[in-house]
Amino acid sequence: MQDDSLSLKYQGLGPDAMKALAAPLEINTTIEFLDLEGNWIMGEGACYLCRVLKENVFVSHLNLSDNRLGYNGAAAVCQLLMVNKTIEKLNLSGNNIGDQAGELFHSVLTKSNSTLRSLNLSHNRLEDGAALWLKNAMIENETLEHLDISWNHFQNKGCVLIAQGLKENVGLKELAVAMNGFGAEGGKTLGDALKVNRTLQKLDASYCRLPTECIGSIAHGLMHNDHLKIIDLSYNCFRAEETLELLKGIEKNEASQLSLLHLGNTQVEAKFKDLQDKLRKERRLEVIHGGILDDYRMEITEMDPMEIFRRDPFTKLKEWVAKAGYRLIDLLRHFDKDQSMTISTEEFRRGIASTAISITEEQLQILIDRLDNDGDGEIDFSELVEGDRQHRKAKRDVLAEMERRASQGK
């Protein structure tokens, strides 16, 4: 403990060991970077730690991610931040922090002498109630530079509030809102925010269910924004025909500083690629996308039935299930975070995003529509079984077609 950093990641400390560790930390004068990720110290352990750090003037970076802190742990951390004047970077990712903690973080972020520069609240359970508190905090706070609230439970209303907060914010340089349910209204409000914000340099809005209808608003925002350098819009619900509007918005902005536009596996048309090449040459803009749609269509047309079957989204899902050593019931349990024995379409999206399955947003929507037979927004075991039955039948049909072609010498 004489070094300037102490890393005890995934050491199984628990609250009791955290209590023992708190004693030497109280008198330590060298540690500036403290990493306790993945120790399940819970709220009790957080109380022990925060009690001794209140008077500490040395620790500036604190990582408490994946510790099951819950509300009590979040409250202890926020009480610490109200008096501590040295912590600049805080990671609270994956701590089961719920909506009721929103007011706590608002108090921390709006205190007059806040020293916090980076806050990671990703992979928690913050919902639309907390979004209102975060909106007001973003409007009032001028010192926070990095905020990660991705992989929470914000729906359309909450995402609109977050975007409204960004619109009036004057301090953030990086904002991550990935894997939240922005939808059309949230996407349009996000575009409005980009139009007037003058500090943000990096925005991650991947996996946000942004539909094609909001592309115009986002493109309009990019047309007027001269500070943003990186924007990640990957794995949203964009159609190839409308993506060109994004590039046209950037092209019209001669003061644009954008260096990377990430569209993930969204496919584009040939005229998009032409403008992309032009902007790469003139402005060094890099664009990531899923390839040219016309090329893909031609490839599919020339493909044999078995290859088309292999690219089917349910085929990809079953391959991942088999590779993971799962059964279909195991898949249900793996994705079912609230233990309801059904998977909401939101849980299904989050579950797929946490895997290494190579699947486009369009394919994911096809898969959801196929499995959610009754359209109630929930996928239960019987619907998984029915999807598997239909998939097996499709495979038999493909094999029969292949045999028929072979017998005809095709």
From TrEMBL:
Biased segments, Basic and acidic residues type: 396-410
Gene3D superfamilies: EF-hand, Ribonuclease Inhibitor
A single MF term (Gene Ontology): calcium ion binding
Biological source species: Biomphalaria glabrata (Bloodfluke planorb)
Domain EF-hand positions: 327-358, 359-394
SMART domains: EFh, LRR_RI
Alphabetized PROSITE patterns for the sequence: EF_HAND_1, EF_HAND_2
Name of the protein described by the UniProt record: Leucine-rich repeat-containing protein 74B-like isoform X3
Gene: LOC106076218
Iron as UniProt keyword: no
Disordered: annotated span: 389-410
Alphabetical UniProt keywords: Calcium
InterPro entries: EF-hand-dom_pair, EF_Hand_1_Ca_BS, EF_hand_dom, Leu-rich_rpt, LRR-containing, LRR_dom_sf
Superkingdom assignment: Eukaryota
Pfam families associated with the record: EF-hand_7, LRR_6
